[in-house]
Amino acid sequence: MRNVVWIGGGCGAGKSTLARMLAFRFDLRLYRVDSFAYPHQRRIDPVRHPQMARLAALSHTERFVDPSPAQLAADFTAYAHEAFAMVLDDLAALADGPLVIAEGPSLLPELVAPVAASAGHTIWLLPTSEFTDRNLSRRFDPHKDDPDAKRRHDNRIGRDRLLTEAMRASASKHGLPVLDVDGSLSLEQTADRLSEHFADVLAAGPRARDGAERSRLRRAENTETHTAVTMFLESLGDAAPEDPPPVTFACECETLGCQAEVALPPSRYPSLDDVIAH
Looking at the record, which segments are called Disordered (predicted)? Predict the structure, then answer.
């Protein structure tokens, strides 16, 4: 897949933010695997995706609290392997547009290696456990007041440590690059480092041809974000907050290189003709 740049790595490494910064900076298409988690779940075929079907049928406690960190890591890996064909289908549908930055923790090195155009089209961001813990603590968590919240958190950190170690080993085995993330670099510095790493690929492009195409890219990504948030809130059922936190949407203006964003209540986005930050 010559039209795809792959950014994988551990949870809480800043992948989503950094991928978004690069997509905005260079007017590329952003594909966030996590934005398609619920749409992919609706496409599960129990015969073709037995592990995805098994995990999707579990309760929150059965899936995230009861298992050990090792089992959580094994479940995550099995799910990622079965879902990867759906990711490839999504990316194939974007082949005629600008270069795509695909980002997500489930983009494991052993999955990406056979389809990436080159090692230079890939990188894995591997955070320290402390960095992961710090970042995850800032995220919206509808279950933070549950009595088993600490156990779930500890399991998550243990799982992520195992996954990061596995990604490092897999990347080494397949000759793919990694970048350690410990917070010593700012987001801008890390984005600059990634820009340097991908310099040849980014120079080759293609990028959005003009402001109109740039606007269409951001609108498509915003729609994907809104769909993901809506389906996530629906999945919470009675536990869904009455007043969900604002969601960050990209400015949909026609200015090439625009990096502006707008925070909106998720329910407001569908009523807007476009999202303009300036």
Answer: 137-156
193-196's contacts with Cβ under 8 Å and 24+ in sequence apart are: 194/7, 194/18, 194/22, 194/123, 195/22, 195/25, 195/26
Strand partners, 102: 6, 31
Q: Evaluate if pTM is beyond 0.85.
A: yes
pLDDT digit string (tens) for 81-124? 999 999 999 999 999 999 999 999 999 999 999 999 999 999 99
Q: Which of 207, 230, 260 is the last residue of a domain?
A: 207
Indicate if 180 and 241 belong to the same structural domain: no
Angle at 44 between CA 38 and CA 48, to 5 degrees: 150
Residue 187: CATH number of its domain: 3.40.50.300
139 lies in which domain range? 4-207
Q: Are residues 242 and 258 in the same domain?
A: yes
Q: Tokens representing 151?
A: 């156990």
Same domain for 199 and 214, yes or no, is: no
Same domain, 83 and 149: yes
Extract the tokens encoding 187. Answer: 């987001």
CA 134 to chain centre: 18
Band of residue 153 on the pLDDT scale cut at 50, 70, 90: confident
130 plus 253 within the same structural domain: no
Closest CA to 216 of 253, 248, 247: 253
Structure tokens at 124: 């894995």
Question: Quick one: how far is CA 124 from the chain centroid?
Answer: 12
Tell which residue, 52, 98, 64, 41, has the closest CA to residue 227. 41
Of 207, 240, 268, which marks where a domain is finished?
A: 207
- Pick from 87, 241, 108, 243: which is nearest to 165 by CA? 108
Residue in the structure block whose two tokens are 């536990």 = 239
